[in-house]
Amino acid sequence: MTTVYISIGSNIEREYHIHAAVAELKKLGAGIRVSKIFEAEPVGFSGPNFYNCVVEMETSLQLAVLQQTLKQVELTYGRAPDAQKNQSRTLDLDILLFGDVVQDNSPHLPRSDLYKFAFVLLPMVELCPERVIPGDGRTVSEIWQAFEHTQALWPVEKVAC
């Protein structure tokens, strides 16, 4: 079994899609833990705010199979096959960490979002503050402490997974 961290984001029917994604991930692994849901403004475009969270889970799936399965889940829940990076979406599922894998090909691991976005990093702090990022050597907490806290982000109290 491999410990995997997957980010979930949605800004279209947010609550429905976050819950649907968690339900789908439960079919792919065990020992699932879900961070709080955070609301964040879109980065790089104008649109409705996102709901974001991170799931920690154990899976026996190979990386390529997991990646393909996540893309299929996105399509099943209405994401356009030709969806662009900076636009509204029903569902966005990204592998942040896959065990201790470090690779430059797709999917790039660890995912660079860990260093760019508070809506990815803060849920990781909640789930695994002492987790060492492969290829980096710092813990999630150490990265958070060095992070520029300029992105608006707040917990969503009324919605839980």
Task: Describe the model.
With 161 residues, the protein is an alpha+beta fold. The protein has five helices and six strands; from the N terminus they run E-H-E-E-E-H-E-H-H-H-E. Strands 1, 2, 3, 4, 5 and 6 form a six-stranded antiparallel sheet that branches. The protein is globular. The protein starts with a strand and ends in a 6-residue tail after the last strand.
Notable characteristics:
about 160 residues; alpha+beta; six-stranded antiparallel sheet; 5 helices; about 30% helix
Specify Rg, calculated over alpha carbons: 15 Å
Low-confidence stretches: none
Hey, roughly how much beta strand do the residues contain? 15-25%
Largest sheet: 6 strands, antiparallel
Instruction: Give the helix tally.
Output: 5
Overall shape: it is: globular
Number of strands: 6
Class from helix and strand fractions: alpha+beta
Helical amount among residues, as a percent range? 25-40%
Mean of the pLDDT scores? 92
- Give the N-terminus to C-terminus distance in angstroms: 23 Å
Helix and strand run = EHEEEHEHHHE
Short characterization:
Helices cover 30% and strands 23% of the residues.
Helix-strand layout with pairing:
Elements: E1 2-10, H1 14-26, E2 30-34, E3 38-40, E4 50-59, H2 63-76, E5 92-98, H3 113-116, H4 118-127, H5 140-146, E6 153-155
